[in-house]
Write a structure and sequence with these properties.
The chain is of the alpha+beta class. It contains four helices and seven strands; from the N terminus they run ααβββββαβαβ.
Length: 173
């Protein structure tokens, strides 16, 4: 009741949280967080989810909170397939243009060795040359305390922000 947004710990899908923790450990992701109650617990949760690239949702079937990490899919068995039999419309189909892509990411973090704010910057030089300049984005990761993890997150974010993804809206039956 004090730390769980008022929910019982029985509402946590423990296996999904443990699997997410193991994945983060395997990836070398380590964070140090302090929720000091100055901000809302919801904002704190969103911050943690941003660090781990996760989503927290209440499952409609079992009624439990599940933690899902957003990662590259290696096994497509069991995934929903959208095709003519279950798709009614596809609209707003769009691909980001080169000018909308980010070619440089700076991650700000608290370095545990110096106890000072530090930063690390990565860039996609090929994309910068295509754009004629660096299009930069700065991201604060308050839970990061090492340059190694800061570099890992900066590289991860740059890869996503520099990729011309497709977006659309799909209406299904």
């Amino acid at each position: 009741s004090t730390w769980g947004v008022g929910y019982s710990d029985g509402l946590i899908h423990e296996a999904s949280f443990l699997a997410a923790a193991q994945t983060c450990k395997n990836e070398g992701l380590a964070f140090s967080f302090l929720w000091d109650k100055e901000g809302s617990i919801q904002d704190f949760i969103v911050d943690v989810l941003g660090h781990i690239q996760g989503s927290l949702y209440l499952d409609r079937i079992d009624g439990l909170f599940h933690l899902n990490l957003i990662r590259k899919v290696t096994d497509t068995s069991g995934l929903l397939t959208l095709n003519a039999s279950n798709t009614l419309t596809v609209s707003d189909f769009r691909r980001r243009s080169v000018g909308e892509l980010i070619s440089e990411v700076t991650v700000k973090f608290l370095n545990m060795l110096t106890f000072k704010t530090d930063s690390i910057t990565v860039n996609d030089t090929g994309l910068s040359q295509r754009q004629g300049a660096n299009i930069a984005k700065s991201i604060d990761y308050s839970g990061v305390v090492t340059r190694k993890v800061a570099l890992q997150l900066a590289t991860r974010d740059l890869h996503q922000l520099a990729t011309p993804l497709y977006t659309c809206s799909i209406t299904c039956n």
